[in-house]
Amino acid sequence: MISFTLNGKTVQTDDSPDTPLLWVVRDTFGLKGSKFGCGAALCGACTMHIDGSAMRTCVMPVSAVAGKAITTIEGLGTPEKLHKLQAVWAEQGVPQCGYCQSGQIMSAAALLENNPSPTEADVDQAMAGNICRCGCYPRIKKAILTVAAESSAPSAPEELAANSTAKIGEVVL
Ligand code: FES
Ligand code: FES
Question: Counting atoms of ligand 2 from 1, which one is nearest the CA of 96?
Fold first, then answer.
């Protein structure tokens, strides 16, 4: 029996230890958001977070994640409270067929978790392993940079606080 955390809940499986995590998550636990593309760690469609890192799960035996925390696209946000990437993805109409998109979002989420203000080059590097046969790359990059910009922009109360601490006559831009 192999035990791990799946989207915040402790789960156990008696699947064969060499079963790829992707199939355990999809078939044993019924979470179908993570996709099978290449089966060879080349396309990123199967990307999940394992202890916070974006990993390919089509070639990862479930035995390798014993005791670890797995997050899938189903655990990133909820329909009632979307993750900010999911919200911007929808607002900007990023997907075409959609098949690669959960993997894209999981890689993007891991990037922003580690680097909330990525450069375009950072985004290119972090997302290079996620293939999109529909060629949505410009929209994917724009959406990631939008979320990064929105996250780094000071909120109104923060702006007020900054202004309130300025010396009289000092211009705060
Ligand atoms: S299906 Fe896992 S990387 Fe392609
Ligand atoms: S949206 Fe179709 S493969 Fe990426």
Answer: 1
Q: Which of 73, 136, 139, 141 to mutate to test the pocket of ligand 2 (most atoms within 8 A of CB)?
A: 136
Tens of pLDDT along the chain (173 residues) come to 999 999 999 999 999 999 999 999 999 999 999 999 999 999 999 999 999 999 999 999 999 999 999 999 999 998 899 999 999 999 999 999 999 999 999 999 999 999 999 999 999 999 999 999 999 999 999 999 999 999 887 655 544 444 444 333 333 33
The first and second tokens of residue 121, run together, are 């080059």
Rg (CA), the chain: 19
The tally of CA atoms less than 13 A away on the side-chain side of residue 72 is 21
CA distance 125 to 122: 5
Tell me which residues have their CB closer than 6 angstroms to ligand 2: 95-101, 132-134, 136
84-156 CATH, one of 1.10.150.120, 1.20.1510.10, 3.30.9.100, 1.20.1290.10? 1.10.150.120
Domain definitions of the chain by residue range: 2-76, 84-156
Distance from residue 136's CA to the centre of ligand 2 (Å)? 7
| pTM of the shown model | 0.88
In the CATH hierarchy, which fold is given to the domain comprising 2-76? Ubiquitin-like (UB roll) (3.10.20)
